[in-house]
Every structure is written in C-alpha cells, then in structure tokens.
Amino acid sequence: MARVLTTCPYCGVGCGFYLEVVDGRLVGVIPSRSNSVSKGRLCVKGWHAHEPIQHPDRLRAPLIKKNGKFEEVSWDEALEFVAGRLKEIKTKYGPEAFAVCTSARCTNEENYLMMKFARAVLGTKNVDHCARTCHAATVSGLNQSFGSGASTNSYDELPFMDCILIIGSNPTEAHPIVGWRVRSAIDNGAKIIVCDPRKILPAESADIYIQHYPGTDIALINAMINFIVTQNLHNKEFIEERTEGFEQLWQVVKDYTPESVEGITGIKSSQIKQAAKLYAASKRSCIMYSLGMTEHIVGTDNIISMANLAMVCGHVGKEFSGLYPMRGQNNVQGACDMGALPNVYSGYQSVADEEVRDKFEKLWKVDLPSGTGLTLTDMMFKAIEGALKCFYIIGEDQLRTDPDTHMIERALGSLDFLVVQEIFLSETAKKADVVLPGASFAEKDGTFTCAERRFQRVRKAIEPISGKTDGDIICEISKRLGYVMESDPKKVCDEMASVSPIFAGVSFERLEGNGLQWPVPSKDHPGTPVVHLGKFRRGAGKFIPVKNKPPAEVPDKEYPFVLSTGRLLFHYNTGTMTTRVANLIREYPRNFVQINTTDAERLDIKRRQKVKVKTRRGELEVLAEITDKIKMGVLWMPFHFSNEPTNVLTNSAFDPVCRTGEYKVCAARIEKVEG
Amino acid sequence: MEKLFITQENLKIFVKNLKNDCDEFIAPRKENVDDIIFGDTKDNGRELSTYDGNSVTSPRSFLLPQTEPLFEIKSAKDCVLLPVEDRKKRIFYGVRPCDIKALTLMRKFFVDELADLPYKEKFENSTFIALSCDKRCSKECFCYEMDSGPYAKEGFDLQLTKIQQGYYVNIGSKKGSQIIRRQKKLFANAAPEFAKEIKNILKDFTKGIEKIDYKKLAGIIKQEKVKESVWDDIGVRCVVCSGCITLCPTCSCFSIADRLNGDKGMRMRYCDGCPYAGFTRMAGGSTPFPRHRDHIRRFFEHKLSVDVERYGTPSCVGCGRCIQTCPGNINIRKFINSVLEAQVL
Q: How close, in Å, is residue A44 to chain B by CA atoms?
C-alpha cells in the first residue's frame, strides 16, 4: 500500500490530497489537513479524483488513422510517423504552418517543454492554450491596469473580509473550496454582494443580490463608480498616491449614473447604489470574479472596469482586498506562467523583447522566431483559410470546449495533419491523424500553479498507463527532430526557474510542505501572498476608461432569449473524467437547459420536457429544468456533455484584445419538442 | 479485568514483536507537515507510539475502503467469477476510543446482523489496540459528550493509557489476553496509584463538560420537532462533497458498480450515501425528498435518532471528522445544541 501526496487535477483552486494505491490500483483519496489551500476539505470531484484514472476507456497505445480508421501501433511507429510528418510539413510550408496547443491540465514542466518544443524545435510562434477561452482577459486586463495579470491576494484572506463582491463567478459549484472560504466569511459576518443572472447559492446568503442581464457588467460597474465618486466615497489619498488617469476615467464614468443604466442592466438604481456604498464603505472589500466576466467580447474591458472600481476605493494593493480571478483549470495559471501564450515566454517575458529572445536563444542554442504568434481563436480561422496546416494539441478538446462547434469542425477538417495527445478518446482526438496516449496527473511528477499563484507539487502514484508521460512524448519527438531536451521534471523546473526572474526561487526542494506563491525572485525569497503592496507592479495603477458595449448578439424577435453557459458542481469541462465517475454521472447524467418559471409557463414548457434550443449556429435537444433562480428572458446550459454538446449553440464572436469567445451571451430560441 | 503496566521501552519491543505476527501493522503515521493518517508501518517503523490529535481516516478506510473489489469478472457472458479475498492479518495500533466504539457499531451492522463477508473477513482477522485520550484530540471532538471517550469501554482487544511512567494496559478480549500471554515478560501488574492517576486525567478531561442527553435528542428528532430553519440552514450549507460520509467511522452505505473492459472486469463497491440526490432517485426521475436539505438530513437522523432506537446508542461518536472536512461549515455538535435548546414544542 502506498500513499502519495499530490494536487487535485480539477479546478484552479489547487486542493491537496493523498492518493491511496493498493497493488497498483488507485483505491481512494484522503484530504490533507496540512495543505494550506484545502485544509482537509475537498469537493465531490476531488473526493473521486482516483476513479477515472484507471478506467477501461483510457487510451493505452498510440493510434494512427489508416484509411479513416484508427489502428493501434507501437510507440516507435507512432513517434517516427509523427516526427516524419512534422519534418515534411516544415519543409513544405515552413514553421508558421504549425500551431501548438499546450494543456492547462498538464504540469508546469510539461507546458514549459511544449512551449520550448513549439518555439525552439518546430520554430513556430504559434503557441497557445485554453486560457484563451477563459482568463486571457484577466491577463490582458489586469496587466494594463496593475502590471500583473493574476490574483492580487490570497485565499486565506477571504474569511476575514468585510465585503465580498462576487460577479460572474459561482464559487460554490466551480471552485468549491474557495466557496468554503466565502461560506466562512458569511459565517464571520461579512456582507456579500452577488451579481449574476442566476441566483447561485452564495446569493441565498447575500446581503445584496443583483440579477442583471448577461453582458451588461460594464454599465453596472461604471454606475457603481459613478455613485461612489458623486457620494464622495472614493479613496482620494489612494487615487492620488498610487494611481494615474483618474480624470480620464471620470470623463467617461460621469455619464453612467445608476439611473441611466437601469434599462440596460435590468436593475433598479437604488440597488446599484446600495451595492456601491457597501463595497466602497467596507474596510476590507474584495472582488471575486470568473468567466462570467471574461467570456465576452468586452472581456478585457470588463476586467479593467473592476480594476477601476477597486482602485477608486483603494481596495487593492494591500492585505484583505483586491481582485480574485478564479481560475478554472488545475494548471491554467501555470500554463500561462510557463509562456504557453503567443506573446510571452515563461514568466511573462515578452517575445517582442530582443534581450529576452537573446537570453532564450543562448540557453536553448537555437534561433527563435520573432514576433507574436496566433492565438487559439485565430488558429481556427487561419486553419480554415488554409494558412495553418498542422495542429499539435495536448489535453484539450476544442470540439467540445470552443464556441461554435461547427466552425471548429471545419477548422480541424482543413488541416493536413492533426496530432492529439489525450488520456481518453475525446471528440477532438477522434478527428486526429495520430493520437498519442498521454498520462493523467496521477502518473507523473511535476508542479501545478493554482489561482492564488501557488506552485504545488504533483507526485506520481502509479506508472503511466500508456508507458509515457506527456513530457516524455514531447521529448521523444523532439529528439527525432534532432533536438534533445531534458525530460526529468525536476531539471526542467530548474531550467525554467533559471530563465524566469519571477520564478527564480522555485525548485522541487522548496515546494515540499506547502509550495510557494510567485513572485519568488530568489532562492531565499519566501514567496508573495499579496501582490502590489505599496506599489503596483507597473508603478502607478492605471485608470483606463471603458464603455459599455452590447454583446455581439442581442435577443431579437427570432431569437428572443439570452443563452448563457457554465459549469456544474458535479462535472468538469467536457466531462471526459467526471462522466466516468459513478456518483458524479448519476447526479447529472444529461444535458439540460434552465428556464425561468414564468417563461416556461408562457411557452407551456413542463419540467423535464424535451425542448429544442436554437441559435444562428446550431440547435440541440435537451430536457428543460424550470427554476425561479434564473432571470426572465435568460436561458442557461452546462457544457459538460459530449453527446449533447452545448457549444454547437454558442457564439465565436470574440474580444478584440484577448480573443476570448463570447460563451456567456448569445441570442437563442427555445421550443417544445412534441411527442 | 486484569490491570497491567508496560514501560515506553518495553512497548517498543512489544510493537516490534507484534509486527512479526501480522501481515499489516496499521498505526498512526505522520505524513506531510503535521498530517496524521493510519497506514501500514510493518516494514518501515513509522508508527507513532503516542500522538496528539486523531487520524484523518478511521479504521473504516481499511475494513470498508472508499472503493473495494468484490470479485473479478473473468467472463461476463459466461458468468465466470473469481472471488477477491482479503485474509490479511492486521493489527490496528493506536486506535482512539471514539473509533473503537464506531467499530462495535459497524460490527453490529456488518457482522452480527446480516453478515457482509468482505467486511466480516477483514474484521475478524484484525486485532485492535486502542490508545485512550488524555486530552481532546481537536477542538471539534466531543467524544465524552457522546459517550464514546476518552476511554473505550468495549470493542478493543487491548487498550493503552499513557501515564507518566509508561502505559496502563486494559485487556478487552480473549484475543487480547492471548497476545499478552505470549509476551508476558514485557508487562508488570499495574500499581494502584496508576488508577488514581488515570482518574485525575479523566477529571481534567471532563471538567466543565456534560454528557449529551442523546435519548432526549433522538426523541426530538424522531418526533420531527427540529425547527425547519435548522434543516434549511443545513440545506444551504451542504455542497454534496461527500466528505462526511467518506470519513465518518460509522457510515456504512455503499453502491455497486461493474467496471468492464469488454467481457472482463471487476465488480466494485464504493462509498455512497445520503447527500447525493441520486442516492434515492428512482427510475423516471422521481425522488421521495425533492429538496436537498432533506437528503443530508438523513445523515443526522440516522446517527442521532434511528441508531439510538436500533442500538440504544447514537452512531455519531463525536470524532469531529465531518466537522473538520465540511466546506459548508456544518457542525453536528452545534446542530445537537440547537436541537436541544430550541426544539419546536
């Protein structure tokens, strides 16, 4: 019997538990009380994290598609074949015909290797990952306002807040162990403001619940700022000492009186004023947000508007304050940190900076491409246009996670060569020419970085089921392309730290115990629980005026509803893992659509009746769930069910800065299915 | 009952000898930082002979693991099955009295009533050496109030109590006296003043705390006199993590699943229970209790009312594990108080 301490593979909270192994079989999970993130608690997904790992459906051998059918082949044959095809494509079309999609599910070390593989071995600028579909707006928004695109504060401050403004985030379901801290804050007497089109669980205990229309967040927040300033509740000292551009902000925000946004948001001005006053006047106030803010065509502006609100009140840059972007995947923070983005190397070092490039060229002993590469969003368009010929995707299921599935299908169908590294045969993997069986979190050593910027160890509990970890696979292909990379995770971590100033102090040895929160600029630096203390990373915090802009698609006569999407407590993303856990699939076995009781009555839709949800991009038959917890005129669907894929409906319109799709709003119609 | 004494040094020898006589020596082990969790120490000497606090998991995690193979399916088509047997001889060392009481209740359910063979086999091949508590193991523990600590009354083979000069030893079963007989030289008769020392420890432990009137409590719950607002509050807090039912030393519910790879596979049982809506949902989607608060309510009713009627004692042993692991800050101790203080008349 072995017991291996590791980090949860699901959401971005980063809980710690032990995996129990008996005779090579994963039999259970034991929460770690000493883990500073989870303190002995787990959510239902974490409690069952062992269950899908050794599922019979796991991919065990590489697959090559021959005459339209997958055939199991040896590792040697698969790796030779992939390396051969990559060489051909590079010779024929040049390195810019490649696009590499790394994985927020993989370790930091694997993301670093994959980023290195893309840039140093394939020679392409085009490397990105699924942060594009979630928190790219956080990185681009907070970077402009504060100079660092991650959470400003730490989880453990939450229970001691006086006021928590939760907007576009459902901590109970999507980040349950942060949800626990929100619960503790409520129990400690904190005031809660929830802004969400659905009356989520924290709203039940909230002091103010604002049920605004999806896609009207800037109007709401600008109106709050407007009221705060006109009521003289703003923090003049903070604005004077720590920020710049307040005048420019005011020139725009002065027109956003609470009364003026009533129509847009569907919220009475009195409620907006109440919320503004509570947030501004509380001593310890913070904002918690998630994809409800980022997945809009105005995602970056949404984030900037919250940064503005926090700075106007001086609720940032100190303990017990700040912005908490709740990251959705176990290592989406880390994948960003490792430079799996088209514009930066590890540690957010710009690809446009000659000195930086020079440093990486010297370390890797190759010439590196210059300039910014394509984002995941643009990769799809470029594939359809024909400029991209080959995708190399690790652990991501774009055919189920990206908006407008039919468009993604066209994009993947346009490629000459598609390689997918996966643990289950996902829908995207089914489209691949070669599927390389990767390894789950339980089969590898490395690190994940959670939403509070904490590096934590991931430890191998069982041998890789396919025989190789994702890092091994990348290194073997690299070797066959004539470039040898170190694959030992510990050494990869050391290399990454040596070349990334904000992670310079990170090493496996130092992560024993409870990990480290970056920035960790040196080997003796204790880590940074609160960022921007005394001074923002960029110097002065920058007020950037932003204006409300309607979503790309608004309801009309033909499509009278707003459709929004999100996560359930019991499932995770495309459900490849959670639908293979008995208790989880039993709770929610099928997709459904939530509709308001009054809307349902008007349309004569009954509980659990089959309905058709239609948008301009597609249609889907699902069961109706009737509830008074959702705003009238709004529909909501989860996106976890591969056989009833919600993203055939969503809109691929995207934010012009961060290129994140607008999952949270599109126009839709709902009708009964007879019989 | 014979009263014996063993020194710290002799205890070490005793443990060493016991290890030769078992397949697994399950004892409290220190894991990351200050995590204490029961684990096999037969070959590694990592056991803590005495310790503060309690293990994250109870012996239940060995006798009724979170997932457990029941039999191997050689061929589903031809119905060829191969039993999975676990005849390992286990010695559990350092088990807290609350967990010992839990074992006696689980024995009633899995062994005495309708015999559950996989549990029975493991239970009967196990020896339990209890270690009584000289102080509360956590701020959440309330064993004395629930009549399950700080000393075990029954259900152990041996019970050790830490005193200044070493350990006071109670023998609780035939198995226990046989073990002692084999290593008699290590033990001495307990001096009368040791009993006095123990009395003082108990006095300190119980200072200012009163036992819960669990019969009264059971009655209030049974007669549905618990305030609606109490259940509502629990309903809002419970986020169906399943931590309480997984860590509780007396939760016995499980479900069955076949894990087939083609024609071959394994029949597994796994921890399941009341917080899940799916646990009681029937075909067609109807459920006897549609509201979530009435799902988790069963956890409280079963432990504090149903089992009092069935066994004469509550099956909440006051170990505090459900409190420590709950992301909704549900606190069964506070629940008990609020029921006793503010019942609906």
A: 4
- Please list every residue in chain B whose beta carbon sits closer than 8 Å to the beta carbon of residue A59: none
The total domain count for chain B is 2
CA–CA separation, B270 vs A586, rounded Å? 14
Which of the listed residues A267, A291, A326 is the one where a domain comes to its end?
A: A326
Same domain, residue pair A294 and A354: no
Contact criterion met (CB < 8 Å) for B329 and A51: no
What is the spatial distance between Cα A112 and Cα A114, in angstroms, rounded to a whole number? 5
- Over residues A59-117, the pLDDT tens digits come to 999 999 999 999 999 999 999 999 999 999 999 999 999 999 999 999 999 999 999 99
Q: Tell me the pLDDT of chain B averaged across its residues.
A: 94
Query: Do both A163 and A241 map to the same domain?
Result: yes
> Whole-model pTM?
0.96
Nearest CA in chain B to A204: B236
- Distance between CA atoms of A46 and B31, rounded to whole angstroms? 19
**Cross-chain residue pair A50–B67, CB shorter than 8 Å:** yes
Is omega for the bond preceding A519 within 30 degrees of 0, making it cis?
Answer: yes
Q: pLDDT at position A392, please?
A: 98
Q: Across the interface, which of A47, A180, A187 has its CB nearest the CB of B246?
A: A47
Q: How far apart are CA A647 and CA A398, in angstroms?
A: 10
Whether B116 and B110 have beta carbons less than 8 Å apart is answered as yes
DSSP E strand stretches across A330-431: 344-345, 349-350, 390-394, 417-422
Q: Is the pLDDT of residue A228 over 70?
A: yes
Determine the structural domain holding residue B42 and report its residue range: 3-206
Asked if B241's CB is within 8 angstroms of A41's CB, the reply is yes
C-alpha B12/C-alpha A231 separation (Å) is 72
Q: Of the candidates B33, B285, B327, which has its C-beta nearest A34's C-beta?
A: B33
Q: What is the ipTM of this complex?
A: 0.96
Q: What angle (nearest 5°) sits at the alpha carbon of residue B294, between those of residues B288 and B297?
A: 130
The H or E element spanning position B158 is strand B158-163
Distance (Å, whole) CA B62 – CA A216:
53
On whether both B164 and B312 belong to a single domain, the answer is no
